[in-house]
Amino acid sequence: MAKEPCTPGPQESRLAAYLNGLAEAAGHADRVEPVKSYCRGLLLPGERKSVEPMAARLAPGNVRRMHQSLHHVVADAPWSDEELLARVRGSVLPVMESQGPVCAWIVDDTGFVKKGKHSVGVTRQYCGQVGKQENCRVAVSLSIATEAASLPIAWRLYLPEEWAKDGERRKQAGVPEGIGFQTKPSIALDQIRSALVVGVRKAPVLADAAYGNDSKFREGITQAGLRYIVGIQGTTTVWPPGKQPLSKKKWLGKGRPPTLLRRRKNHSAVAVKQLACSLPSCDWKTVAWREGTKQKLQSRFASVRVRPAHRDYWQSKPHPEEWLLIEWPAGEPEPTKYWLSTLPADVRLTHLVKRAKHRWIIERDYEELKQELGLGHFEGRGWRGFHHHGTLCIAAYGFLVAERSRFSPSARVGQLHLSIPRIPAHFEPRGAPDKSRTA
After folding, report:
1. Are strands 205-207 and 104-113 parallel, antiparallel or unpaired?
2. What average pLDDT score do residues 232-254 get?
3. pTM
């Protein structure tokens, strides 16, 4: 194990300066050192990033006192997650932008498998972590991305309707009174609006079909003054190129004048899958969007101008035209992915594809946040603790993003030049496997 150096190295000094800036957002002076210690504990090597094992790594000579300090600051202390995340954004975003401008805002959510029913937000629902319905909780995030890096800037637990209506469980978990049931797209829209209020540089919003299928989500992005490229399902209906709903009926002078658009049996919208399968072969182009680990990633794409058709028969004007982007890989029996986009009408297919596919970058974020920084390791049940832990994980991740952008593209947990105290030889955190047992 490395010995603690007499003087801190350059990376240690940068971390100290970074954490000093963040800790001011904790408010009370008694929280400053615990916040800094918690972030540092997340960045040190170790399989488990819950309070007890982090306390042992940080203060092997006084584990109990460090445990109490870390537990209080994450589970009980009333500091603002929003203010601390704003400090992270203010420190890290300028470094990211030094390598290139913000090119996308990315909406996503991530699930955490969790047993029982008393931990805040836990219910049986779809969990992306395991790809099926599971007992879990889910958090919605908004990230900002350049071509090379990305950073979550907003983070909120999705509170299922059964939780929102259960006063007793809300009280036990400390759910704030102002938090009611919201769909995930609604939470994401609130995050987007908040980012606009604080002046985050505008960029197109990217999201998968879980959000893009929601027409109110798409409309909310447009009303906020942003463009989007969002996934949709193949059953989504649109008006093909050059077509739109019929205009209102002619008024005959009696009753209220007609105002609504019309459809007919031989004049109706079509599913995007049906439209995609009807396109001629000359419309499909092979496009590469980035370098993979072994070769360029490429596939076949087509794009056409369409009008969304969702309930336009209750409107007096048709929806504006936008792009329908379709992916149909060679060898597949049918198209595999669809997107709607409000990028300009003169955008090139290659740019449309590259931007739609840029959502992959936050998959890397979540992988590292979960596997290296312990995003899912919080063991408490409360609303405050869940959000504080997530915020501090993002803060620690922000330091890694800044290091990669400025000095070391390979900076990762376990590869940082930080002093590491020696852990007691016989220390075993709760939950560690029993080594006395045989297989």
Report:
1. parallel
2. 81
3. 0.89
